[in-house]
From TrEMBL, chains A, B:
PANTHER family documented for this protein: EXTERNAL NADH-UBIQUINONE OXIDOREDUCTASE 1, MITOCHONDRIAL-RELATED, NADH DEHYDROGENASE
Lineage of the organism: Bacteria, Pseudomonadati, Pseudomonadota, Alphaproteobacteria, Sphingomonadales
Superkingdom, natural source: Bacteria
Sequence similarity: Belongs to the NADH dehydrogenase family.
Catalytic activity, reaction form: a quinone + NADH + H(+) = a quinol + NAD(+)
Keyword NAD assigned: yes
The enzyme's E.C. designation: 1.6.5.9
Boundaries of every FAD/NAD(P)-binding domain copy: 9-326
Cleavable signal peptide: none
Name of the protein in question: NADH:ubiquinone reductase (non-electrogenic)
Amino acid sequence: MQEVSTRPRVVIVGAGFGGLAAAKRLAGRAVDVTVVDRRNHHLFQPLLYQVATAALSPADIAAPIRSILANARNVRVLLDEVHDVDADSNRVALASGRSLEYDWLILATGARHSYFGRDEWAAHAPGLKSIEDALAIRRKVLLALEQAENETDPERRKALLTFVVIGAGPTGVEMAGAIAELARRAVSSDFRSITPHCSRVVLVEAGKRVLSAFPGKLSDDAARSLVDLGVEVRLGSPVFDVGSGYVQLGDELILARTIVWAAGVQASPAAEWLDAEQDMNGRIFVEPNLRVPSRERIFAIGDTANAADRSGKPLPAVAPVAKQQGQYVADVILGRRKAAFAYRDFGNLATIGRSKAVIDWGALQLSGLTAWLIWSVAHIWFLVGFRSRIAVAISWLWSYATYQRNARLITGEHPSTPTQLKRLPTLERKCA
Amino acid sequence: MQEVSTRPRVVIVGAGFGGLAAAKRLAGRAVDVTVVDRRNHHLFQPLLYQVATAALSPADIAAPIRSILANARNVRVLLDEVHDVDADSNRVALASGRSLEYDWLILATGARHSYFGRDEWAAHAPGLKSIEDALAIRRKVLLALEQAENETDPERRKALLTFVVIGAGPTGVEMAGAIAELARRAVSSDFRSITPHCSRVVLVEAGKRVLSAFPGKLSDDAARSLVDLGVEVRLGSPVFDVGSGYVQLGDELILARTIVWAAGVQASPAAEWLDAEQDMNGRIFVEPNLRVPSRERIFAIGDTANAADRSGKPLPAVAPVAKQQGQYVADVILGRRKAAFAYRDFGNLATIGRSKAVIDWGALQLSGLTAWLIWSVAHIWFLVGFRSRIAVAISWLWSYATYQRNARLITGEHPSTPTQLKRLPTLERKCA
């Protein structure tokens, strides 16, 4: 390989939808690109809830970043973590102790869940952002069913079979629907003591409706679909407390062994690295061309950025925004674009469960089976890598035809955590 | 469900090949069966090395025990761990504190790796028995490649790219072949600093040949296939010491960041529970009808048992033996068989890598592509569950056509463990 130091160096931090889109757009161009990510894989986050509910395997929705970029010979991939940015000397500090010099820096570091200052809730109500998160939730849900099967005390069995999802945005709605399908349907014939109608799935939302980013009619359709699946939808119910095995909603205490957090996200600390002005979710307020104010050579995109649309409203934290921003920023670096970033909105999709989804295309609003088919095709299409598409398509067809889940594995350090019972459970199928 | 206490109660400990075969044979018969396993899934162990080398996902080769037995209404599955057996009162003690009473007990508890009394080696040379083991090895192998890509010190890079497999039985041969394919071929175009020929894979064996259970000609064919894949085969090389980053063979010290143990197994402590006579691997010497001596109602099968064939030689610790023993024991319990157990040997298969396998059918011995095709079809056929078969078949066809691996994910608590380097690595593709 020839000496390359005279070409502009672009450092991309984070290989989510935004960072990856930028790297792909810069591939083969006269720039030297380094992609830094603390994980070796790009994750198709919109399907992560399917890993958490045992429908897909991690490898179905994740691919090594360096495989995706293997043919981009001007792109290097570095497994490392950014700790700081020195904008004056144009350097990024890495966890390994090394530093990277850049001519252009793209911050695409994404977001984590946020507990609104109640970080102690995290231990009891895990969120869903990484493969580890998804496997931890899968383990929790499947172990609760196993323990319920062995439990004879009616109160404890009830708590084991109660699943609470906090937050009714797209992730919360998908999780609630998928848990209901898993716990009330997919596994029902496998157990001897518990029966499908024993499981209770509660979706808790502080606001007035589910999927608040969608028009009211679609929110209503989604809520109805959830109820059809057996989900209790609790609107206007802010959470007052979360602890080991319970959720407090106003006067009501729900005892539940499994609680999932889908209520809030917080951007990564990129704003702190740059001492940049941030919104309440930690996202950097960026200029119309996605530059960080007063940092000519630094862009922030995706969930890291608070970018306003034409009406001044912040763009939603969704994959298409991040992707288009990544491509835009790459074009700016290559000198091909000068105009401000403009988001082309191709519509908004959310799924609830088997045959149930909603689509908002502005004038056209769809729900039900048609929406679900479009959602399925779109998600398979956008999956990175031809092979993942086939694998996921087959898994879905299989699940659809048989109601079965493929990835019902309890793995981890202590695979069996049996309940502390002295008596043998009865063989009757009763539901306390 | 009706009162069932008058029917004989069969307790099966372990849902590997032996325990599952017994449970299936007892399904729908006039017995009440309880299967106890500390994991929720049955594992198709012969393909576990493919999970460890990123070719398959865990869910491709594992299925929930209770799904497999869902239609056997007289069979219950209990996620729990057996701690002891009280043969005088016919009870099994569980980790949960409960106990189970039995009329017949089948011990099918399997085996773990054994370090020949050098348990301190376990931390440096993990073995391959569970999904957790496989994911840990996958993580180790993939991280070594990532760190090698970032490493500038030639000695350390060399150690990162050296993979040692200890033990040249079927598992060791498969692991060495698969690691060579992964590290020297599958990932080669994804890296910028390391090249395929940098990776060194060493298969270490104390004995005189690989696959010692096979005829000499097939051992030679297998060794040649390994060499073709770029594996260094070191026969007659007992291991003197294993430590952090090294293996000591006689005078030679091999520096290697990744060491895999495939040299020995040790049966689970079932012999201790019963105070039964055991062989040097902890297996219970059983009677010709697979009963534990002087325990009329207790059978031991599979890797838990040392059962002699007609010539007095112990049967090999392979899946077909365990399966046939499970079926046999179920038949004995049902009163359908009285004669001693006789193993029907349908041949011995082992694979080395892409298009390379060996088959021993006694008179007919095969190696190369034909053997590999037969091996592939046989393994897909025996995979539990129709869906896994499709998934694995597609993964294999995909890998075969593209040389790619599907499941190259580094997951776990600390996904990035960067090396401690100060300098930026060079972009040259050189191999120290």
